[in-house]
Every structure is written in C-alpha cells, then in structure tokens.
Amino acid sequence: MTDAALATLERVWGYSDFRGPQRQIVDTVIAGQNALVLMPTGGGKSLCYQIPSLVRDGTGIIISPLIALMQDQVAALEQLGVRAAFLNSTLDPDTRRLVEQQYLAGELDMLYLAPERLQASLPLLHRGKIALFAIDEAHCVSQWGHDFRPDYLGLSVIQEEFPDVPRIALTATATVQTREEIASRLGLEDAPKFVSSFDRPNIQYRIVPKNRARDSLLRFIRAEHDGDAGIVYCLSRKSVEQTAEFLRDQGLDALPYHAGLTPEQRRFNQQRFLRDDGVVMCATIAFGMGIDKPDVRFVAHLDLPKSVEGYYQETGRAGRDGEPATAWLAYGLQDVVQQRRMIEQGDGDAFRQRQQSLHLDAMLALCETAGCRRQMLLAYFGEDAQPCGNCDNCLNPPETWDGTVPAQKLLSTIVRLDRATGRAYGAGALIDVLLGKRTERSSAQGHDKVSTFGIGTELDDTGWRTVVRQLLAMNVISAVGEYGVMQVSPRGAEVLAGREPVKLRKDTTAAVARSSRRSSSSASIDELQPGQRERFEALREWRRDTARDQSVPAYVVFNDATLRELAVERPSTLNELAGISGVGRAKLEQYGDEVLEVLAGV
C-alpha cells in the first residue's frame, strides 16, 4: 500500500484501513494499470477510484449513468473537502463554463460526466490533465445484462482517445458471461479482475405466496419496519401509483416513482426519499441504480423480477450500512404466466427470447427452491457457500412432497380437455375440472364429461394453483398465447408417462424472525444502552437539521455507524473526536465543535 493512499484515506475519510480488496485495487490504479472491479453494493466501490483520483496527478473523470444523483455524489465529496463537480444537461451555460474552467486550471479532483456527454466533451478533456477514467455501473454495457444502456457502448472511445490513462470499470452485479462482455466492450480483457464475495449477510431473503399482496406488504412493514425507509418495486406504473396511494391511506409516508411522472416530480420524490427519514418509495425498476442511501431497511417486490441479476441489484439497495435489512418478495402463479407471455410477445429475436427465458428460469428456481436462498443466489454468480441460516427457508424450512400424481392429473386434464373441445384452457378452467366444479359455461362446453372431472379434490383451489405455479416454473407445463393457456411441455410428457417424478414444496406462511446478522462488528442501534441511545438520537436530530440547512442527505454529514460510535465513545475533545471512524479532517474542522457541544449536553 502506498503511504499516500493510506494517508489520504485517513485524512479525507477518517478511516484507518482499507476493506477487503480495496487496498490492492487502489494500488493497481495508482500504478497506472486498468482494473475491472465486481463488488457488492455497500462494499466500498467508490473509494477504489476516489483515492487514486486524489493521489494521481490530474482530475479523475467518473462516468455515471444517473444525472439526478451526481449532485448528491458531488455534495458528499465536497463535505469531505474534495474538489468535485459534474457536467450534465441540468447546468446553465455560466455554471458549465465555470466547471470547464476549473477543470482546465487543474482545480478539480473529480469530474462526473453522464455517458451521453462523453463524446461532446472529448475536446475539453484532451485540454486538461486526467488522472483516470472510472466507469461506474459498468454492467450497463452488456446488451444481455439486466440494465443495458445504449450510451455505454460508446465508452470504448476512452481507450482509443486516451490509451495512456488508466481505466477502472466497476459494477455491483455480473455473471461470468456479463463480466466477460464488460471486459470485451471496454477493452479490459487483459486488466486485473477483482471479484469480491457477492454475499450480503445482513440481508434476509424472504419469498412469500402472493395472496392479497398489498395487504401482506402492509403487515410486513407494520410488523418489522414501521417508520423505516424502504423501496417497493412494482412492474407497472399503474401498480406503482395504486400501491403508493394504498400505503399513504394506511398512514405511511409513501411516494411514487416511474417514467410517467414529470422530471420535476421524479426529482422531488427522489430527493425526499434520500433526505427525509422513513420514506417508502414505490417504484418501477427505473428507480434505484446508484442510490447511495445507506439506511434503507427493506426492499420489497410486488411482482417477480425478470432475472436474478436484477433481483440481486435491486435487493442490494437495502442495508448498505451493514445493519439488518429484509428483501421481501410476493410471488404467485400469475407472475409466471405474465413473465412468460411478456417474453413470448416481446420484440426480441429468437436469441434474445432464449436469453430472457434462461434469466426467468433462474429466477423461478430461486423462488421455488426448498433449500437456502442465499446459497442458490451466490451460486448463480459462481460463488460457493454453505446454508446461511438467515433466509426464510433456513429459518423456517419448507416441507417437500411427492407431487407426481397431482402433476399427472393436471397434465391429463390438459390433454383430455384439448381432445374433447379442440382448444387449450388457462389454469382456472383446468382447476375447476379437477375440483369437479360445474358452471353453466363449463357444462355447455362438456367439461363435466371429461374423465378427469372431480378427480382432484385432495387439494383445494389454492393448493392446485401452487401446483400449477411450480409445474410452470419447472417447465413441466407452459403458458402460451395472450391468455396464458396451458400446454404439456416435452418434460411434461415424460412426467405423464411416469418416466420422471415430480417433487414439490409446500408454501409456508409462518412469520420469520427478524434477522440479527450484520456485516458490521460494531453494536447495532438496537443494542445501545439507554444513555448511549439518548446521545445517538440527539446526534441524529442535529444531523437532520444540519443536512436540511445545507440541502444534502443526512448521511452525507455523517452516517449512522459514525453517530453510533460517537454515542458509545462520547469524545470530549477535538483530538478524541478525530479518532472516531468516519471523521476526516474536513468534517472535524466543519462539525467538530458542534458535535462536542451536542455530546456535552446529553
């Protein structure tokens, strides 16, 4: 480790040492080499380019896809005494010229650029001194990844225009296939690749049956996360609006976020989420990339994500501070039918549809597994792990049962109804036949004459829907067409012939105990003694007022971990305060006296 890098870490950020592979990555880039970094959300990716930007000569150029968040990123750096700025379409001409002059004069440590502005900014960049290029959210370059951005394809120009400037590409999620594509598109095939563990041990993964999903969500929030900040993901704009309204009607501070809102409304709602405590954001997946709010206590999905990568990226926005957090997903039969239909009716060619189907199959397998969810999630990214003891399946193991006979009954009903009527049917009609339900329409169509009519009364309607859902997930049956009618797949033919058994899991609805696992070794907020808790709350109130005065998120002033250590250690001098993790020189000078005054008054 270079002395300059460690000294910068201590002086600017107030940390005494690097975490995990940060040390090696920082040294690599400072030495002028390229790097590809895969590190989970909350793992400290930003330091991997921020430290070299400060140590190397010139300005670090950071390519970031989210204009709305650049302002907060720059504000956080300015709090640390770092000279940072951004260039994007929100700046007026005078401000843009000022930033350009600062860059040319060597007065900026870091300059943030949106990818679509890179090409137009090349003449400016060539006239200044560049320390490095950092490409954040690098998975956006992958056309088969979960969050492709066309503008990222143009980033290969960096290698051509600035061959001697080191490049570091960073992402929080990528399969082996995606990381190979990132390396190829960005010319980083020969660069060292730093792959951290994808495990987020403080996040409890939980998947529940979808039955009155909004009511289930409300019970979950009330029981475990009342007053906490959280994100609720929905598939459609309409669902986002309805969910936000439902939660507000129940007394929660909930806001919508989707592409149908005006840019001003999206920006206002995002700022409220980032800067206020206890806001629940109901959103499409348009919201979240680059969100740097450390105290998000839960991420909920009311609809099935399209891929494991997307699910991991979205759930990774919870618990960035290392405190316990929950990833909650409501999942049901209609999710499977809907996702299959969206792929079938989508615009992609056969290859893209095949890729999307593989992504969906992996997500369904995660939902239906009776084993450890974390173990399966990590295996998707090529990482071996033992059962975690902290997901719903580990804490409340589901029962499995031999579902071969029920599967054969359902498959036989699909075949016999098709033969009798010359058409295929959806799950509802098939279940009615199995349960022996007579309706005017079914009788008119001769459903009650089919030999399987009434042979499935060992299960109720909910039980059969669970069977259908799992058989769809296992590709024993397939849902086709606009109405999701059921057909027997090649694998289903094997089951029907008795050549392949079927094992199913029983859905569990029992509550799961709140996780107590953390990635941090320090005491959690809940473990503080009464006097310590009083000091923590006083500091949090001071932080909220200070942040509001400066129009920045509260965590930009100090994060919860630093406040917690202040409450426990209770420093009484500036020298003692300087020894607290997270108190760098700039913050000591700016806030030191105020913090000591707060602590002295409690």
Topology record:
Blueprint (H helix, E strand, L loop, with lengths): L2 H11 L8 H9 L4 E4 L6 H11 L3 E5 L3 H13 L4 E4 L5 H12 L5 E4 L4 H9 L3 E6 L21 H5 L5 E5 L4 H10 L7 E3 L7 E7 L3 H12 L4 E5 L3 H13 L4 E4 L5 H13 L4 E4 L12 E6 L6 H8 L9 E7 L1 H12 L5 H19 L4 H8 L11 H4 L4 E3 L1 H18 L5 H9 L4 H5 L16 H13 L3 E4 L4 E4 L1 H7 L6 E3 L24 H21 L3 H4 L2 H10 L4 H4 L7 H16 L2
Parallel strand pairs: 1-6, 1-7, 2-4, 2-5, 3-4, 5-6, 8-13, 9-11, 9-12, 10-11, 12-13
Antiparallel strand pairs: 14-17, 15-16
Helix pairs in contact: 1-3, 2-3, 13-14, 13-20, 17-18, 17-21, 18-20, 22-24
Descriptors:
EC 5.6.2.4, 7-stranded parallel beta sheet, alpha/beta, 17 strands, DNA-binding, 13% strand
- CATH homologous superfamily designation of the largest domain: P-loop containing nucleotide triphosphate hydrolases
Strand content: 5-15%
Number of domains: 4
CATH architecture of the largest domain: 3-Layer(aba) Sandwich
Helix/strand-derived category reads alpha/beta
Report the principal-axis shape.
globular
* CATH classification, class level of the largest domain: Alpha Beta
Query: Helix count, per DSSP?
Result: 26
From the 3D structure, determine the CATH topology of the largest domain: Rossmann fold
Rg: 27 Å
Strand arrangement in the largest pleated sheet: 3-4-2-5-6-1-7
Average pLDDT over all residues: 89
Distance between the termini: 41 Å
Low-pLDDT ranges: 515-523
Helix share, percent: 40-55%
Q: Could you give the count of β-strands?
A: 17
What can be said about the biggest beta sheet? Answer: 7 strands, parallel
